[in-house]
Amino acid sequence: MRSAYDRVATLDEVLRRAGELSAKTLVLDVEPLVAYWDSGQEALDQGVEAVLARARELPGVQVVCFATNSFRRPSVPLAGDGVRTVYLVSAGKPLRTEYYRTFPRPGVVIGDQLATDGVLARRIGYAFLQYHPDMRSLPFGPRLMDLSGQLLRPLFFTRAH
């Protein structure tokens, strides 16, 4: 069975769709939704804080997990204020799935790459919301990976609506 998939362009759309899916767990790719790839520590800290504050507002959300395959991490501990917060560095997406197995369901993985974030969603049985900002602003590598991922999307996902 293929998992639900939708393509979204803004954080507002991401959160609206996650709410419509009654997600209890949000797994958010860090780059570029939370902080852009080549941004500094301040941008990462501010992005994590802002996204976490918005995600906590969703009814029913119990876990917010930031997952990145990079080594970047926030400079201060995350405060969940009633929502469990997790930040995974060098997460090994999509190969490592053990981190996510104990999170409450239903869940949503939100990220820009089908080959990493989307496959992770499929492997752990979550919906996938593909964050798809203006393609002209993406670096060459992520843009190329996105194009190849779109060729595989019909094999893994059905449209959510």
Mean pLDDT over the full residue set: 87
Structural class computed from helices and strand pairing: alpha/beta
Give the number of DSSP strands: 7
The spatial strand order of the largest sheet comes to 4-3-2-5-6-1-7
Percent strand: 15-25%
Q: How helix-rich are the residues, as a percent range?
A: 25-40%
Helix-strand sequence: EHEHEEEHEHE
Low-pLDDT runs: none
**What about the largest sheet?**
7 strands, parallel
Total DSSP helices: 4
Intertermini distance = 16 Å
Quick structural gist:
The protein has 161 residues and is an alpha/beta fold. It has helices spanning 11-20, 41-56, 114-124, 140-156; strands spanning 3-8, 25-29, 63-67, 84-88, 107-111, 127-131, 157-159. 34% of the residues lie in helices and 21% in strands.
Structure description:
The protein is an alpha/beta fold. The protein has a domain at 30-108. Helices cover 34% and strands 21% of the residues. It has helices at residues 11-20, 41-56, 114-124, 140-156; strands at residues 3-8, 25-29, 63-67, 84-88, 107-111, 127-131, 157-159. A 7-stranded parallel beta sheet has the order 4-3-2-5-6-1-7, sandwiched between helices. Strand 2 (25-29), helix 2 (41-56) and strand 3 form a beta-alpha-beta unit. It starts with a strand and ends with a strand.
Name the descriptors:
161 residues, alpha/beta, 7-stranded parallel sheet, 4 helices, 7 strands, 21% strand
What layout of secondary structure does this protein have?
Layout (H helix, E strand, L loop, with lengths): L2 E6 L2 H10 L4 E5 L11 H16 L6 E5 L16 E5 L18 E5 L2 H11 L2 E5 L8 H17 E3 L2
Parallel strand pairs: 1-6, 1-7, 2-3, 2-5, 3-4, 5-6
